[in-house]
Amino acid sequence: MLFARTKPNTWLYTQVTWFSENDTNLEVGLPGKLTVQGSCDISPETPSIQELECILHSGKGDMNHVDEVWPNLFLGNMCMAHDRHGLWKLGITHVLNVNHGKTHSQGSHDFYGKTVDYHGVPADDVPNFDMSPYFRPSADYIHEALNTPGAKVFIHCAFGVSRSASLVLAYLMIHHHFTLLDAIRKVKENSHRFSITLQASVATVASGPQAQGYMAHHLENVLDTCKLELTQIDEVWPNLYIGNVAIAQNRTALQKLGITHILNAAHSKQGSIGDQSFYGSKVLYCGIPADDSTHFDLNIYFKPAADFIHKALKQADGKILVHCIMGMSRSSTLVLAYLMLYHQLSPCCAIKKLIQKRAIYPNRNFLALLLDLDFQLRRKKRKTCLIL
């Protein structure tokens, strides 16, 4: 039996949206906030991708070829799937291959013979593949198999951490009424696979426009939690200040603060008169002619701006002011990029850090660019891990 595919998306984003649209329980199921090992606060409402990410990353352990994640339900990789003798010793009667027809996947009805019932799902572990058409039929297949006396189900993809794992979660949610968070926790009790699942697939979530819009909206919700009044200048990180154009042009105030570096994200824009000659030889100036608009590609300045901030803070007694006109959007976006590039913070964590110190509000375009940066950084980290 083969299932068909439809519109593009990614598995965790698809899991959240599909179950939400189909009125399946997504709530955490406990009052107040939950704290996961690793200091992650989980809201009692529909969990965000970042909150799910935090849980997926919690816990460490070695990954096995196969784990029994639910009574008589086994989750594993392709290596185990090709070991027919090993499957026979486990008593496997059903195989659900979420890597059907892909390179190096030998699974088929002929491969397993008449003693094993085989079902194949030709899923791709890529950002533009939609897993939602498989949730219900796969969950039903697992459910019917486990209701057969003496049956044991083995579900796998290539590594057993992404495609197959998502279908196990779908089964627990559809047929056992688990919340998504509880389903993840249940599987993690018996398998270390989810410790690396996010690196294998969820990091790609920012690459899809629908998913990116969802996550940008979540970041806006985080920004909305800030209760601070907007001031001229705030120290948001040790020796790192965000401010507006008024404080940037007050050289006396900057001298009292000990500012040694200026990063102007509104260079040459109306109302901004800053340049190197304005500040003189005692202050190092860097200007970025950014527009606070929905189409400006600020991302081309992320790395050079972060490098400038980093070098300034490494200097003895170095203090840097990053500003635009209001000190809310362009300047804060560059500081967020710095925290992501040099301190390995996620966009959400970086925002939570800053809003403790200053009222900021990057526009949605800039938030999307930060999400894209996060995706690029995670992909780079994943490639490095694979090499090691």
UniProtKB/TrEMBL annotation:
GO CC terms: cytoplasm
TM annotation in the entry: none
Catalytic reactions on record: O-phospho-L-threonyl-[protein] + H2O = L-threonyl-[protein] + phosphate; O-phospho-L-seryl-[protein] + H2O = L-seryl-[protein] + phosphate
GO MF terms held by the record: MAP kinase phosphatase activity; protein serine/threonine phosphatase activity; protein tyrosine/serine/threonine phosphatase activity
Keywords: Hydrolase, Protein phosphatase
Record bears the keyword Hydrolase: yes
Active site: 324
GO biological process terms, semicolon-separated: negative regulation of MAPK cascade
InterPro entries named among the record's database cross-references: Atypical_DUSP_subfamA (IPR020405), Dual-sp_phosphatase_cat-dom (IPR000340), Prot-tyrosine_phosphatase-like (IPR029021), Tyr_Pase_AS (IPR016130), Tyr_Pase_dom (IPR000387), TYR_PHOSPHATASE_DUAL_dom (IPR020422)
Positions of the Tyrosine-protein phosphatase domain: 64-215, 232-379
Keyword Cell membrane part of the UniProt annotation: no
Residues in Tyrosine specific protein phosphatases domain copies: 133-189, 306-358
Family statement drawn from the similarity comment of this UniProt entry: Belongs to the protein-tyrosine phosphatase family. Non-receptor class dual specificity subfamily.
Name this polypeptide is given: Protein-serine/threonine phosphatase
Species: Conger conger
